[in-house]
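pls read this stuff:
=====
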Amino acid sequence: MKKIISEKLPRILKNKKRLEKELLVKITNRGKEVFIDGNPEEEYYAEKVLEALEFGFPFENAMRIKDENFIFEILNIKDYSTSKDMKRIRARVIGKGGKALKVLHDLTECYFELKDNKVGIIGSAESIKNAQEAIVAIIKGSKHSNVYSFLEKNHPKPEIDLGLKRKF
């Protein structure tokens, strides 16, 4: 049984039945403490999904974590910048009207969310490395156009199945 302290408890309780059904775990709470009960692997994925919900991701994006190919990562902006002007750095990451985050999503196929001075990323294992590098480059002050061209050049190639692989 895992225990999580949740600041956004209503968000979890609103989706409790759906979470229990899709994650195959039992969720109970006492105050701000949320308890997850199930087999260890399902508890792990449930914990990650609840972390993503707590971070601020929409329910559908948070549920992608239960797919083994998707990972949830958190980058702390302060780890990559010595600037005291966090508002300006956050604005660079978001872009004008959210354009930078939308372009990053389109180029990396990852989902981004900002909370305080942290950036949450949900994406496939191949894409998340590029997404992290792109966010760090923007935080450090690289031009957005340079970051976008880096992502276009380093986009992971889809695997093409010619029917030659053996299926086990």
In short: The chain is about 50% helix and 20% strand. The domain at 70-153 is CATH 3.30.1370.10 (Ribosomal Protein S8; Chain: A, domain 1).
